[in-house]
Design goal:
Layout: E1 4-15, E2 18-30, E3 35-39, H1 46-54, E4 61-69, E5 72-73, H2 79-86, E6 91-94, H3 108-119, H4 128-134, H5 139-142, H6 151-163, E7 169-173, H7 181-196, E8 200-205, H8 208-214, E9 217-222, E10 225-231, H9 232-237, H10 242-249, E11 293-295, E12 298-300
Parallel strand pairs: 3-8, 3-9, 6-7, 7-8
Antiparallel strand pairs: 1-2, 1-4, 4-5, 9-10, 10-12, 11-12
The protein binds adenosine-5'-triphosphate and nickel (II) ion.
């Protein structure tokens, strides 16, 4: 069985006058048949983490750590190896804002067929209609041009493209953005089917309610670090990190209280806990960064957890 094992992954962007600590010491693993949701506020490093796994970072990025996909380290693999063996074949990406990734002048069918030609030899190539059906699209949907697709349908076309090479791991980056409730429900069901089918899903989202319905485990990210990781129901019903609790309390169907203060600037992170300036449980020891410590499959990085 293939697994993805990420160990101490860090990404730094060098700007002319500063260094952005976008992802710091992130470790997790993912196995087929499992969905891990990565949640956290805008700018905390979720998409950068996904880009690092696929070798899509820009030239000013420096990566450290390991991301083992079976025997292959994704962080040191060449672009050639990633494009021949990994992208689309082992890992399918449903990008953030999928409509922007479709070619405007060609139908969804023509784009999916091209992906299938690229990824499969003629004798074992699945039909476009078959792949589209797995993403919840009918054959007639495939004959539309991108401008004719609603947000939900563009999302499905992007999912069909991500599934074209039959990857075992799907990374879906903010797939619920802009979808109404019925489409979110449909997407949740589709993602669960992919997991039931033995695929792994890394779901990147702000949407805690969707994460709860799809994910087996939830990883909460703050300022580039994982600060709480555990079974979905535990993390959302009994969050232990004050930031995770704050995210849950900010939900409209909970206390609806926003977390006070602003997310930190990633070019000037404090040496201790990055959440401490906003935290109502802050204590003296928070000047030293708390390690992510696991107890019964639920890990938290806090000196004074809830
Ligand atoms: N090429 C780059 N150069 C410098 N900084 C960058 C670059 N790409 C991303 N960043 C910074 O890295 C941080 C993490 O960005 P990222 O896109 O991963 O956030 P995110 O968690 O996906 O947010 P969102 O929910 O808004 O998509 C942000 O502060 C962003 O400005
Ligand atoms: Ni993002």
């Amino acid at each position: 069985m293939v697994t993805l094992t990420v160990e101490e992954l860090s990404v730094r962007f060098t700007l002319p006058d500063a260094v952005v600590a976008a992802v710091s010491d992130v470790s997790f693993s993912l196995v087929p048949g499992e969905c891990l949701a990565l949640v956290g506020e805008s700018g905390c490093g979720k998409s950068v983490l996904a880009s690092a796994l696929l070798g899509f970072l820009p030239g000013n990025a420096e990566v450290a750590g390991r991301a083992m996909l079976g025997p292959l380290d994704l962080l040191t693999a060449t672009d050639d190896v990633l494009s021949r063996e990994v992208r689309g074949r082992q890992i399918g990406l449903v990008p953030q804002s999928p409509a922007a990734h479709l070619t405007p002048v060609r139908t969804a069918r023509s784009q999916l067929e091209e992906a299938l030609r690229h990824l499969h030899p003629a004798e074992s190539r699945p039909a476009a209609d078959f792949v589209a059906a797995r993403a919840g699209l009918s054959p007639a949907d495939l004959d539309l041009y991108p401008h004719q697709l609603s947000g939900g349908m563009a999302q499905r076309v992007a999912t069909a493209l991500a599934l074209a090479g039959d990857p075992w791991l799907i990374i879906a980056d903010e797939p619920t953005t802009g979808l109404d409730r019925a489409l979110v429900d449909a997407l949740v069901a589709e993602l669960r089917l992919l997991v039931a089918d033995g695929r792994a899903v890394l779901l990147i989202t702000h949407d805690l309610a969707a994460a709860r319905r799809v994910a087996d485990r939830i990883a909460v990210m703050y300022a580039g670090r994982l600060i709480e990781v555990g079974p979905g129901a535990e993390v959302l019903d009994a969050p232990r990190h004050p930031y995770a609790r704050g995210l849950v309390d900010a939900l409209p169907d909970r206390a609806f209280t926003p977390i006070r203060g602003l997310p930190p600037v990633l070019t000037e992170l404090p040496p201790g806990c990055a959440f401490s300036p906003r935290c109502d449980r802050v204590a003296e020891e928070c000047a030293d960064r708390p390690p992510l410590t696991e107890d019964h499959g639920h890990a938290v990085a806090c000196h004074n957890p809830c």
